[in-house]
Amino acid sequence: MNAGYMPDSCSSKSAHHIHFIPLLSLLRPTSLLSVEFGEISPGAGEESFVRRSLSLSLQQPSGFSAAFRSSIVDEETKQVAGIMLRVVLLLLCLPGTTGEETTISREAQPHTFEVTALHEMKKDEQEEGGGMSALKCQQSAEEKQRGVFNSAALSLNVASARMRSLHTLSLWGLQHSALESRPSHLSSSDDYNSPAFYAESSPTTHKVCDSPLLANLLPSSFRSSSQLSSSHAPGFAKLNRRDGAGGWSPLVSDRYQWLEVDLGERTKISAVATQGRYGSSDWLTSYLLMFSDTGHNWKQYRQEDSTGSFPGNSNADSVVQYKLQQPVVARFLHLVPLAWNPSGRIGLRLETYGCPYSSDVVSFDGSGGLTYRLSPGTRWTSRDVLTLKFKTLRNSGILLQAQGQEGHRLSLELERGQLQLLVRQGRTESRHVASLGSLLDDQQWHYVAVERRSIHLNLTVDKHTERVRIPTEFSHWDIKQLSVGTLQGLTSRNFHGCLENLLYNGLNLIELVKQNDHKVTEVGNVTFSCAEPVSVAVTFLGLQSFLQLPGVMGPSTGPSSVGFQFRTWNKAGLLLTFNLPLEGGVVWLYLSDARLRLQIHKGGRTLLELSAGSALNDGQWHSVEMDSRGGRLSISVDTAEGGSAQANPSFPVSIESDLFFGGCPDEDGGQECRNPFHVFQGCMRSLTLCKQDVDLIKVQHKQLGNYSNLQIDMCGITDRCSPSRCEHGGRCSQSWTVFHCNCSDSGYSGATCHSSVYEQSCEAYKHNGNTSGYFYIDVDGSGPIKPQLVYCNMTEQNTWMSIQHNNTELTKVRPSPGVDQQTVQFGYSSGEEQLVAAISQSEHCEQELSYRCRKSRLLNTPEGSPFSWWVGGSGPGRVQTYWGGADPGSQQCACGQKGDCVDPHHYCNCDANRMEWTEDSGLLTHKESLPVRSLVLGDVQRLESEAAYRVGPLRCHGDKNFWNAAFFHKETSYLHFPTFHGELSADISFLFKTTASSGVFLENLGIKDFIRIELSSSTQVVFSFDVGNGPLEVRVESNVPLNDNRWHRIRAERNIKEASLRVDELPVFTQEAPADGHFHLQLNSQLFIGGTASRQKGFRGCIRSLQLNGITLDLEERAKITPGVHPGCRGHCSSYSSLCQNQGRCVEKPSGFHCDCSLSAYAGVFCQAEVSADFKSGTSISYTFREPYELSRNSSALSSSIYSDMTLRGENVSLSFRTTQSPALLLYISSYHREYLALLINKHDKLEVRYKLDSSRDVEVLRSSMRSLANGQLHSVAVRRLGHTVSVQIDQNPTEDFNLTSDGEFNAIKSLVLGRVLDPDDLDPHLARLASLGFTGCLSVVLFNSISPLKAALLHPDTSPVVVTGPLVQSNCGSIAAANPFSAENTHRLSDQSGSVGSGQPLVNAIRTDSALIGGIIAVVIFVIVTGLAITARFLYRRKDTYRNQEGKRAKQEDSPEFPFNNQADAQNLPTENSKEYFI
Q1: pLDDT tens-digit profile of 627-652?
Q2: In 10 A of CB 314, how many CB atoms?
Q3: Which of 676, 872, 981, 1222 is the most exposed place for a label (fewest CB within 10 A)?
Q4: C-alpha to C-alpha distance for 1219 and 1213, rounded to whole angstroms
Q5: In terms of Cα–Cα distance, which of 888, 1012, 870 is closest to 934?
Q6: Is 254 helix (H, G, I), strand (E, B) or coil?
Q7: Cα dist. 580→598, 600, 607, 631, 856 in Å?
Q8: Does residue 760 surpass a pLDDT of 90?
Q9: What is the greatest pairwise CA distance in the chain?
C-alpha cells in the first residue's frame, strides 16, 4: 500500500510504507474520523523531554439511523484504535529509545470517543536521532516553535462485523498546525475477514516483489505439450523477444496444449503478463494458470475463489498483465490455453514477476517430531501467536499440541481433511472448540495461524478466520511445552507431511533446531527438506469426460482386478465400465445414492448386482477394489471400514476389453461403451490393473490410452461449503458444480438464507393488516441479529411491542438471614443485541417500576445514600438511583417530582418509613436506561419491614425506520450516501409512490461494476448489476400501473448464486448467476438515491423505509440539507385506506395513518373487531337521540348529530344476532309522534320488519321468507329504506324488496331500545307483551345510520346518551369463531424463560402454593357432586322436554291471528336457551 504524499521534512531514509491488516472487527464503515497531531512543550523540570501526541476521534455520521449509529463504537474498537495509534506514532518520525509512554484518553459522549497516543523521548535523543531502524526526524526550530508537524499519509484498513466487509480509511495529514483536524476518506476493499493485525514498516527503498523471472532462464527451463517447429519451441516464449518465430506455438491448436516453466527454485510470484507471437495473428484470448513445487500435483489459480480463467490479448504485440490477488509461492508454472484468435492459432510470449522466497522446512514420516520447551520462569503473556504452513496427503494427524500447567492442553489436529482445535483440561476428554478448512490433504501448502488473546482465540486457515472462545481456565495459561508432529505414545495419529516457517511468538523453531538450540529437540526421524511422494490424480470435469485404458490380455478364467481411489461431491456417476466379449455382457461400476454399485447386464436384463459402502459423496478419498478370481467376484470400499460384497457368477469376469473410467466417448466415436448413468464428476488416482500401477503421465502425453475433457496431474475438487456461503445458520450441501442452502427453521430465505422472512417491527406487521398477537420481528433484517418473539399490541393510536422477562408479577420480598441486600435479576425473552436494537429503533420505550412498602425505605431521600437501586441499560447496565415516574439522576420518585408525597420532607412515599402500606410506582421512559436488568433492595431486614416489587415488561412503540421518507420533486435532485458495500450478498428494500412513468430509484457505480434499481415504465421495475461477468437484469412486469400515487414495495437481492426481484405481492423473479464467474461486487462511488451521477433519469416521487442489508438510510436527515428533496412524505391513506374495514375512515398522520371507527359499529385498530354482548331477559339498552350528540370518546373530530324533530326519509339498520328465543324483539325505535320501527323474530322463526310511519294507520308488517333464524347460529340482518322502498337481506342470501303504503317519512325519532322495553306505555299494544319479555341471546355490531348504540353502551357508557339496565356482558359471541367451537385462533407462545427471579416469588403463585392441598381435596368433592347432578339432570331434562312439547302445542292453538304472541305465562315456558341451561 503506497504511503502517498511524503513531506520534505522527513528524509527519504525515514519515509515509510505503513500496512495495517485488521485483527478484530474495528470501526463501522460510516464512521467519521479526524486526526490530530500535537507537541507538548516541556514544562518546568522537564527540559530533557519532548512529548508528542497523535489523536484519533470517531464521531457518529449523519444520514444513518440511530439504530445503526448506536453500535459504531465498542470496546474492541477503542482498544485496537489505541494499538494502531501507538504503532503509527512510532513510525511517523517519532522514534524513541527510552521513556516511551502511551496513554489513552476516552470521552464518554454517546457514539464518540477519542484515543490519544502519547510519545515521550529525551530531547538529546531527538536531536541525535535513534530508535527503531535508526530513523531520524528532521524538524526546523521554527516549526518546533509553531507546533507544526509534517506527517506522511496514513492508510488504515478497518473491518466491520456488522457489514461483513472491509474498508480503507485514508487519513491525509499534510503540514498543519497542532490540534487541526482533518476528515477521513472512505473507500472499499475486498478482504472482509482478514486473520490478524500487524504493522509492517519498511523504507521506501524496499525492493518491491515485481522483478521479471523468465527473462534470464535457459531454454531448457521451458517445456510444452508440442511445438509447431523448432523455431516455435517453448524456449522462445519470452516477453518482447523476437527470437525464432517470435514465440511459442504448438503443433495443434486445441485445449490439450500446455506450456510449462521451471523457475529453478520456489519463488514468490506476484503477476503474470502475456503477449502474442511476434508479427503474427497468433495470440491467446483466455488461459488457465497452474502452479506446483514439484512439477506434479498442479494447483489451479482461481480469482476470487471462483473464476479460473484469465483474460488474454486482443493482438500480437500488446502486453496484458494480471496482478495476482494473492501471491503464489511455487517453482513450476503451467499455462493451459483456453481460447485464441479465431483467425490464427495458439501463440504466446510470457513473463512472470516476483521475488526470491526463502523458508525453513521440516518433514515428518509419522515417527518423528519436534518438542519446544519454554524456559522456566518465562513471564506469562495474555497473547500467544503461532504460525506455520503444512502440506500432507493424509487426511488425519496431529499437527501440534501446546501443554501447560495442571494438564491443560490445546491441540491442532487434522480430521477428515479438516483442521480441528481441541482443548483438554486435566484428565477430561478432549473437547472440540472449532473446525476450519477442508480438503487439506491435497499435498498443497496451507497457512495456519493461531492467536490467543486471553480466553479468545483466532484460528486462521489459508484466508479464512474463525474467532472462538476457549475455557476460562486458559485465560492465564502458561504454555510449558509445544509438541509438533508427534505425541509420546501415539503412532497412528502422528503427522505425515511437511511443515514450513514454524514460528511461535516470533521464534523460528525450525531454525532453532538447525542451530542445535537446547530448547528444541528432535524426536524420531526428522529431515529438513520436504520429501513429497508423487501421486498423479486426474479430474473428470463433467460432460464428455472419460479415460480409456487398454485391457489386460490373459486367460479369460484367470484372476483380474481393478483398483483406484476417487473423491466427489456427487451422489451418482459412472466410475468404470467394460465389456465381457465372451459373454456379450457389460459391467458397470457406478455411484447411486452415494453407494457403490456393480451391475452386469446381458441382453437387456441384469445378471448380477452388488452394492457396498455409503455416504461416498463426502469429498474424501475412497479406495475401490474389484477383484475376480476363482469364480468369485467381489467389490470393496475403503477396505478397513467401508464394506464389501461378493458373488459367485456362473461366468468369468475378465478385463480383456478396453476400460472406460468416468464416462464414454461420443457415440460418433464408434467405441463399444454405453453409459445409462450420470457422468462422473470428481477425481481419481492410484489406478491399478491386475495390481499394476497405471502411468497417467503417459496418458497425458498420448502414449497410453485416450481421454477427453480431463485435467491430468491435479485434483480440481473445490469445497463450496467451506467456508459456508449459507448465512444465518443455513445448512450447506453441494454437488460438484453448485452448492445449496437449506434455510428451514432459520427464519431466513433466499438462495443463501440472506433475507429475513419476518418484518422488522410491530409497526410493519400492523401495516400488513395484522391485529394484536405474538410475532417474530427481525430488527436488522438480513443483519446478524436473530429474530425475536414479541407481543404486538395494535391500538388505534400506537403499535406497542412488548418484551417479557422472567418475573412481571407483583412479588413479595423474602429476606434471607444474614443478607443485608436482596438482589433480583431479570432475564428477558430477547437477547442482548436484540434488546438494544429494538429499543434503539423505537420512538418511545417505557417500563413500569413499582415498590409497595410498609416500614421499608427506598431511596432514603432527601440526602441519604439510597437503600435500593436498579441497574439498567445496554450491556451490563448502569446503576440508577431514581424511581419510576422521575427524571434520570434526580434520586427521586414520581411523588417527589409532583410534590405530592405522603411526607413532604421526603421525595418518595416509602421513605416516610410509615407502618401503613404505601407505594412508589411509575414509568421509566429514558431509553438509554432500559431495560431494567436487576434490582437491589436494601431496607428489608427489619422485623417490621415488608415490601413487594414489580418490574413490568419492556414496552416500546413507533418505528423510526418504517416511516423514514423523502420526497423528490425534481428529476435532477438526488440524495447521496457513502458507498454501498454488498460484495457477496446485497439486499435492498424500500417503498415508493409516484405519478411519473420512469425514474432511477438507486444507483452505485464502480470502475466496471454497478448496481441499479429503476422504474423503466409505468408497469415495469428493473434490477440490474454487473460484478464483472457482464450486465445482468431482472425484470418484473406488473399488471396494474405502478405510478398510481400509491405505496408499492420493492425487494431486491443479489448473492453469489442468483439475483431476485419482487414488487408488492407479485411472484418473485430470479436470474441465476454464472456458475464459474466473478461474484464480488466492487463499488467505489457514492450511493445515489432518487437519481444518478449523470443527473439523468431521476425519480420524482416518494421513497420510504430504504434499507440496504438491513440498515435503514436516514433519508429525512439527508433531505433536510439537500435542495430539491423534502423530508417526509404524506398521503398514506391512498395506499392503506383498504385496511380500515366496516365503514372505518382512514385519517392521515404525519407518520402513517389510523382508522377512525366513530361511524362504524366495529372497534379495533382497523375497525375489524366486532362489538357484541350477551343479553338476558332483563337486559335493556335505551339510546336517546338528543340535540346535538357527539361521540366524544371516538377519535374522529367529526360529530354525529340527530335532531329529535327531524324527518327521516330513509334509514340503514344492520345487526347480527344469535338466539334460540322465538318470538323475540331484536330492535325497537320509537318517535315522539307514536311512530316506530321494530325488528323481531316471529313464532315461525322468521324475521319481521314492522313499520308504523303514520300513527293514524295500521302497522305494516314485512315478513322475510328465510326460516330457522332462532336456531342458535349467528345471523346478520341489513334493512335499508329509502322513501317507500324497503330492502331486507339476511346473511348472504338474496335481497328481498318490499314497498310501504304510508307516506315514507319517519318523524321526530325519540329512542332506540335493545332488549327489554322498560316503558311499555308508548308501545303499540301489538308489541307490548313481546317487548316486556326482553331478549335472550347475543346482539352484535348494531348500527342505525351512523349511530352504534351497543358500542356506545359497552365502550363509552359515561359519555353517551345511553341507559343500561340489567346484566350486560361484553363477549365475542358475535364472531364467527364463537359459532364454531372447533375453530381457534393460532397464537405463538413465548418459550419458558429460565433465570433467577430473585429472593421472592409472585404473590399469586405464593397463594396458590399455600392452598394446593386444600384445592385438591375440593376438586375431588366437586367432581363427585357434578357426577351425581349430571345423572339427575338427564332424568329431569327428559321429563321437562315432554312437558314442554305438550305446552308448546297448547300455546299455538290459543294464538289469535290478530295478535300472534303467547301470553306471559306461556312465554316463560318457551324452548329458550336459558331454560335448557337451567335444566341441564
Answers
A1: 998 889 999 999 867 789 999 988 88
A2: 11
A3: 676
A4: 19
A5: 870
A6: coil
A7: 14, 9, 12, 15, 98
A8: yes
A9: 130
